[in-house]
Amino acid sequence: MSKNKKEKKKKATVPFRLNVLFFCVFLLFSTVIVRLGMVQIVHGEDYKNEVDRKENLTVSTPVPRGKIYDRYGRAVVDNTPLRTITYTKVKGSKPEERLETAKQLAKLIDVPTDKLTERDKKDFWILLNPERAKEKITKKDKADLKAEKIDDKQLAQRQLDRITEAELNELTAQDLKVLAIKSKMDSGYAMTPQIIKKDTTPEEYAVISENLDKLPGVDTTVDWDRNYAYGDMFRTVLGGVTSSDEGLPRENLDYYLVRDYDRNDRVGKSYIEQQYEDALHGTKAEVKNVTDSKGNIIETDYVSKGESGKNLTLTIDMELQKQVEQIIADEMQKAKASGSAGYMDRAFVVMMNPKNGEILSMAGKQFVNEDGQSKIKDYALGTMTSSYEMGSTVKGATLLTGYQTGAITPGEVIVDEPLNFKGTKVKKSWTGNGMGPIDDLTALQRSSNVYMFKTAMAIAGAPYVPGGTLNVKQKTFDTMRYYFNQFGLGVPTGIDLPNEVYGVKGPAGEPGKLLDFAIGQFDTYTPLQLAQYVSTIANGGYRMKPQIVKEIRKPTSKPEDLGQVVQSMEPVVLNRVDMKEDYIKHVQDGFKMVMQTQNGTGHSAFGTATYDPAGKTGTAQSVYAGPDQKEVKARLGQLPNTYNLTMIGYAPASDPEVAFSVVVPWLSDDHNPVSKNIARRVMDAYFDLKKQEISGNAGALEATSKTNQ
After folding, report:
1. What family is reported (predicted)?
2. Who's near 557: CB < 8 A, 6+ residues apart?
């Protein structure tokens, strides 16, 4: 081929290749343009939302609190469901936006406005009238601020002070509703549901639900309130729960916040509700909110539905509790009517199983003045938060201390006679001239003071010398308290409730007070300690931890089902008394004589009982120490002498299943039968209810048997 032909062919090939290249470039650009068009026109809004959207922190919503049942499965504390409207404040939320939402809500629901303060109204007036509010600040105010004579806070206060009553009256009823709603919105924490209205009407709930898309941050849910099936009965021990307005207690704020509580969560604030908060609170539902760049919630994802709080089964028999409380109230009224009640304003009963420490009844009543009228209120807490001189009920511990220290021996005879000490009044038993030679069991049966006096002196190594003085060292007090403590007197009982008091030790440095200590008229103890003490004697020397909660159970949706047991509270032996078992059995014999023999001080109350009772009566001379001390002292010039009437016991003596303590302080007459009447009636109530339970179970078994035939 010639050179010219080759050049012509080459020139023809170059344009073709360029055209192919340009065509490929055109196709690429067309593809890019089409793709950009798809992105911008078809999917543009979606991609924009993806760019704008952001995930917020997970929001936790409360679940129903656990229920509380008595030992037989009767509901004591339950939850009442309530239709509720909430508002969740997102981060970056502006007051103007909340105001607009509040205005819309105010058209749909009714809310109370009586709790709005004057300051609330003035702040709201400023928000509604910004231009007029500016006029409240003068040129002088601005000059003072510039000259640093006042600060911003003082400037704002001047503005508030100049808002007149007439201007506040411009706020309409509808304005006040808006203000009430907005105040709740403003008080909420970011990303935490704040209750706007609880227990709404069905109509309000429905209309809000239909308009949620127009009410940013607003939601409808079901909340709860605690329902106490037995009213005020046992309420002081059951405790209380904070409201959503109260939220977390300030003193325990950090404790709850590190456990993932929200600031407006309701928590147990006292006693059982507080002590078992971890179980009762439950696992909150978790919701993840997705917001746009402006903070509006555009999507909600449920991470966890949560779980209701666990249920508690108490050791308390609420039917027994009901009867015991009524008995206390009846006998207090009778004592008042007798004219010998003196300053008596309260009475207590504790009943427990001495074998395992389960509290069966924990009752207290107190007279209070309300609106000029005397009423009886629940004071069950007083069984563990107040203490008194318990009198002769402690004589069992005195004898046991004497045995164990070798000061006396079981069966030892001592002469009960008036004791004369130099410079002091005669110390004697209640019989006056003395009982003569008696043994230790008779001393318990007839409640001899002198036998206990001489036992204490023997422990101190200071035998009685007529007309002499007592040479008693502090060590003897320490020795006697050491043994008393082993029974639960003067030390924590270990009950699973907060704020228990331990009693008060009498002042040191008075040797003669050892004799008063020996008969229960020096140190003070609580009714609960007294019940633990008699239980320790009843069961042969084992100090059992008092228990108020029997089981923790899983929540269940079936009303008749208490739920599966997840934790059972096993009996706890706090200590074995450091004494020979024979010594305790000997005192048990004496306690039985008190109740069942003719000369026993408890025979008048329990002589006809058929359930084999044992126990001890007590009377302590005391000085009035009640709530009206200042008034009484101002009127009389001194605090009057009074009597604390007490009684302890258990039954059956051969195989104890229930022990009790009764304490009635500050009467003017030591012969008033109020403590004995209460003791007999509560023990009768216990055994009557036991018969009914056995009869009911037998009937159920018979019915089941017939059904299966």
Report:
1. Belongs to the transpeptidase family.
2. none
Q: Which residue has the tokens 């001495």?
A: 354
CB 233 within 8 A of CB 84: no
Q: 168 is written with which tokens?
A: 């506040």
- Same domain for 253 and 329, yes or no, is no
On whether residue 67 sits in a domain, the answer given is yes
Q: Determine, yes or no, domain membership for 46.
A: no
Spatial CA neighbour of 385 closest among 477, 495, 520: 495
Domain shared by 306 and 351, yes or no: no
Cross-strand partners of 164: none
C-beta separation of 210 from 218 below 8 A: no
CATH code of 67's domain:
3.90.1310.10
List 244, 392, 661, 675, catalytic entry: 392
**Do 589 and 452 sit in the same domain of this protein?**
yes
Residue type, 217: G
| CA gap 123, 590 in Å, rounded | 76
The domain boundary, picked from 262, 285, 313, lies at 313
- Together in a domain, 504 and 582: yes
Residues 6+ apart with CB under 8 A from 294: 92
Report the distance separating Cα 595 and Cα 288, nearest Å: 68
In this prediction, residue 258 has a pLDDT band, given cuts at 50, 70 and 90, of: confident
Does one domain contain both 601 and 463? yes
Whole-Å CA distances, 564 to 289, 554, 560, 687: 34, 5, 12, 30
Q: 């035998």: which residue's tokens?
A: 463
Q: Are residues 360 and 306 in the same domain?
A: no
- Both tokens of 293, joined, read 């760049």
Residue 5 lies in a domain: no
Are 408 and 439 found together in one domain? yes
Active-site residue, 308 included: no
Q: Name the token pair of 653.
A: 């003596």
Predicted confidence at residue 186, as pLDDT, reads 83
Q: Tell me the per-residue pLDDT of 88-145, one tens digit each, with 9 for 90 and over.
A: 887 677 888 888 898 999 999 999 888 888 998 988 899 889 999 899 999 998 898 8
Indicate the pLDDT class of residue 7, thresholds 50, 70 and 90: low
pLDDT digits (tens, 9 = 90+) for 483-525: 999 999 999 999 999 999 999 999 887 888 999 999 999 999 9
Q: Is the pLDDT of residue 8 over 60?
A: no
CATH number, domain with residue 174: 1.10.10.1230
Residue 242: domain span? 53-89+224-313
Residue 22 maps to a domain: no
pLDDT at 704: 42
* Crossing angle of helices 449-460 and 395-405, rounded to 10°: 30
| 442 closest CA partner among 572, 587, 567 | 587
Distances (CA, A) of 123 to 127, 166, 187: 6, 15, 14
Query: What's the sign of the alpha-carbon dihedral 202, 206, 207, 211?
Result: positive
Task: Collapse the DSSP code of 694 into the 3-class scheme (helix H, G, I; strand E, B; otherwise coil) and give the result.
Answer: helix
**Helices in 111-164 by DSSP H: which ranges?**
118-128, 130-134, 139-146, 152-161
Q: Is-contact 432 514, C-beta < 8 A?
A: no
446, containing H or E segment: helix 440-446
Q: How many domains does the chain have?
A: 3
- The count of residues in the chain is 709
Measured distance CA(474)–CA(480) in Å, rounded: 10
Residue ending a domain, among 313, 336, 367, is: 313
Residues 392 and 449 in one domain: yes
Q: Which residues make Cβ contacts (< 8 Å) with residue 145, sequence separation at least 6?
A: 151, 152, 155
pLDDT of residue 303 exceeding 60, the answer is yes
